């Protein structure tokens, strides 16, 4: 039997390896911008065409490269940053593993023009599909110009899976924002199809944030600052009134490197405990300066996940520092650490002593007594609902036959409703059922031509560049649903809304749409629009007080086949067999 194991050709191995580093145009943008930062550039331009498909160009005034270095930069694992494994734990630059340029060049047509300060002419290098095409002298300014053309031209399967231009452009903007927010001392410009999107001056962090997200954000931020002997935390958090349902302006940086951490995000959210409505998220721009030896940035190809030596200590630092700043700026009650904690429990007047609380028990109560009263049935139903017996079988959740029109219903204290049929208890969740009904209705009507109502007083909502891009990508579809809006520099003005959506729900709906657009493309509009409308428009459980409030929705629910799950994967009802106590 012949041998079957063989070495892959270099260009094939490079294309496969490129998949880890260059997942989409935004990946190349990130790597090229970080290279410019590492080259000590003070001015950087980013130019993209067709959301990076046709062109990604980064122009910088950094140190430039010599003839030899320019050629070596495209070799795999060629780097000036490290020589040994130990060097990884002392990294203070952005890139260091020597993968980026080799990976980009493996799946694109790349041109590099570069020149060092002390050289008379520069170097031009052209690489296509990982193969060196030419290298020659060229007249070019000091610094570097990287031009990446026709990304994934030689890997059509990868190019086919790219999203629409608007989605890919949002990812590019994400990367541009992250680099720009980490380096406020660097001037940035960004162009798309010859239109200037950003011109960011060097200056303070607050100035950089406001130039990206709009001037109004300045009044919504609270400064954060704490320094210990081993770490420094600084930045800004948003005030309570600026919180949103959409996950937007939440940025974490360590040693000027953007990273993601759900654990530390929760630390910030915990600092807002008791201040934010459910599901609302605060904005924050938080920066850590720490000894590189106490972190590991080498655990993910894109280096956005970082392992800390003592993550629990950083969690505590985040929570206490944010909470303290909220108190200092009168956003949250501040704690008086000088006061004896026992004093807050002393009675204010001697004639009103604190008495021990009493617990009243009902003598003779038997939970298994077979009661026929209406109240007895409610107690029994609550007992079944809370127990959630593990003996239930999947067959019990098959779509059953319709309930009779005159079926009696009971309302539980938790807002759910109960009805009995064929020795089964149906535990119905009216909020989820209403969501399901609304979702089905809007999926049917999502083609558009919905009735619209003009607003006497237009609604306004601040937006930043990323949100403007999102709303602009679905503006025509929103118009077909009955919306009319103008998207200005940093605000959206809504002058008309669908006639069947309450006005007070519109801004919540916009928040939900922006949140859903972070996970979906505009081609999936009908799905995420219907989900968003159903989420914000469905009545809460406490609004179904009487059965006649719930009955019309339940009738529609029967007509769509009594689906077990709502659009968000939660159960609309449970069916529990009534045990025989005889």
Major sheet summary line:
8 strands, mixed
Helix content: 25-40%
User: Order of strands in the sheet with the most strands?
Assistant: 5-4-3-6-2-1-7-8
The radius of gyration is 30 Å
Q: How far apart are the termini?
A: 74 Å
Structural class: alpha+beta
State the helix count: 16
**CATH architecture assignment of the largest domain:** 2-Layer Sandwich
- Global mean pLDDT: 80
The tally of structural domains comes to 3
Low-pLDDT windows of residues: 334-352, 370-406
Here the CATH topology of the largest domain equals: Ribosomal Protein S8, Chain: A, domain 1
Shape: globular
Number of strands: 22
Q: CATH superfamily membership of the largest domain, which one?
A: MutL, C-terminal domain, regulatory subdomain
Strand content: 15-25%
Q: Assign the CATH class of the largest domain.
A: Alpha Beta
Could you characterize what this model shows?
There is one protein chain. By secondary structure, the protein is α+β, with helices and mostly antiparallel strands. It has 3 domains: 10-200, Heat Shock Protein 90, CATH 3.30.565.10; 212-328, Ribosomal Protein S5, domain 2 (2-Layer Sandwich), CATH 3.30.230; 366-582, Ribosomal Protein S8, Chain: A, domain 1 (2-Layer Sandwich), CATH 3.30.1370. The protein is 31% helix and 22% strand. It has helices spanning 10-21, 25-38, 67-72, 100-106, 156-160, 165-182, 205-213, 262-271, 311-328, 374-387, 430-445, 465-473, 475-480, 506-517, 525-537, 547-559; strands at residues 43-49, 55-60, 109-115, 122-128, 131-138, 143-149, 187-192, 195-200, 221-227, 231-238, 250-254, 257-259, 284-290, 295-296, 307-308, 409-411, 417-421, 424-428, 452-462, 484-487, 491-498, 573-577. The strands form 5 sheets. It has an 8-stranded mixed β-sheet with strand order 5-4-3-6-2-1-7-8. A 5-stranded mixed β-sheet has the order 9-10-13-11-12. The longest helix is centred in the N-terminal third of the chain and has 18 residues, at 165-182. It is globular and about 90 Å long. The termini are far apart. The model is unreliable at 334-352 and 370-406 (pLDDT under 50).
């Amino acid at each position: 039997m012949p041998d079957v194991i063989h070495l892959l050709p270099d260009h094939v191995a490079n294309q496969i390896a490129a998949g880890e580093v260059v997942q989409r145009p935004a990946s190349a943008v990130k790597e090229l911008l970080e290279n410019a930062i590492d080259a000590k550039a003070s001015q950087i331009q980013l130019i993209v065409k067709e959301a990076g498909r046709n062109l990604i160009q980064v122009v910088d005034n950094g140190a430039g490269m010599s003839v030899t270095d320019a050629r070596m930069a495209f070799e795999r694992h060629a780097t000036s940053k490290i020589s040994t494994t130990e060097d990884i734990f002392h990294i203070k630059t952005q890139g260091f593993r020597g993968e980026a340029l080799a990976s980009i060049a493996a799946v694109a047509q790349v041109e590099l023009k570069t020149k060092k300060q002390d050289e008379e002419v520069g170097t031009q290098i052209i690489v296509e599909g990982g193969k060196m095409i030419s290298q020659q002298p060229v007249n070019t300014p000091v610094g570097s110009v990287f031009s990446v053309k026709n990304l994934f031209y030689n890997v059509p399967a990868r190019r086919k899976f790219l999203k629409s231009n608007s989605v890919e452009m949002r990812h590019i903007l994400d990367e541009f924002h992250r680099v720009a927010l980490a380096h406020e001392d660097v001037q940035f410009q960004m162009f798309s199809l010859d239109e200037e999107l950003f011109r960011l001056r060097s200056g303070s962090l607050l100035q950089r944030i406001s130039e990206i997200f709009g001037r109004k954000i300045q009044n919504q931020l609270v400064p954060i600052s704490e320094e210990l002997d081993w770490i420094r935390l600084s930045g800004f958090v948003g005030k309570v009134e600026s919180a949103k349902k959409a996950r937007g302006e939440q940025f974490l940086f360590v040693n000027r490197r953007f990273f993601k951490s759900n654990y530390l995000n929760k630390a910030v959210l915990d600092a807002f405990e008791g201040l934010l409505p459910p599901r609302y998220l605060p904005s924050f721009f938080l920066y850590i300066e720490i000894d590189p030896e106490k972190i590991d940035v080498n655990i993910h190809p894109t280096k956005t996940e970082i392992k800390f030596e003592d993550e629990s200590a950083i969690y505590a630092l985040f929570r206490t520092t944010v909470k303290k700043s909220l108190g200092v700026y009168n956003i949250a009650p501040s704690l008086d650490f000088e006061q004896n904690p026992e004093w807050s429990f002393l009675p204010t007047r001697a004639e009103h002593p604190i008495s021990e609380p009493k617990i009243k028990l009902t003598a003779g109560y038997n939970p298994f007594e077979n009661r026929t009263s209406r109240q007895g049935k409610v107690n029994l139903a609550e007992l079944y609902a809370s127990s959630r017996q593990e003996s239930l079988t999947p067959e019990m959740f098959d779509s059953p036959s319709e309930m009779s029109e005159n079926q009696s219903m009971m309302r539980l204290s938790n807002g759910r409703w109960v009805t009995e049929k064929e020795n089964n208890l149906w535990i119905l969740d009216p909020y989820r059922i209403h969501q399901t009904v609304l979702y089905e209705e809007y999926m049917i009507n999502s083609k558009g031509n919905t009735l619209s109502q003009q607003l006497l007083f237009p609604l306004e909502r601040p937006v930043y560049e990323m949100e403007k891009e999102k709303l602009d990508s679905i503006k025509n579809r929103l118009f077909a649903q009955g919306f009319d809006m103008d998207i200005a520099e940093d605000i959206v003005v809504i002058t008309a809304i669908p006639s069947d959506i309450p006005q007070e729900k519109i801004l919540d709906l916009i928040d939900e749409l922006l949140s859903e657009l972070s996970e979906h493309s505009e081609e999936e509009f009908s799905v995420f629009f219907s989900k968003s409308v159903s989420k914000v428009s469905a009545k809460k459980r406490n609004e179904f007080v009487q059965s006649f409030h719930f009955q019309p929705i339940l009738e529609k629910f029967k007509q769509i086949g009594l689906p077990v799950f709502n659009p968000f994967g939660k159960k609309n009802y449970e069916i529990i067999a009534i045990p025989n106590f005889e």
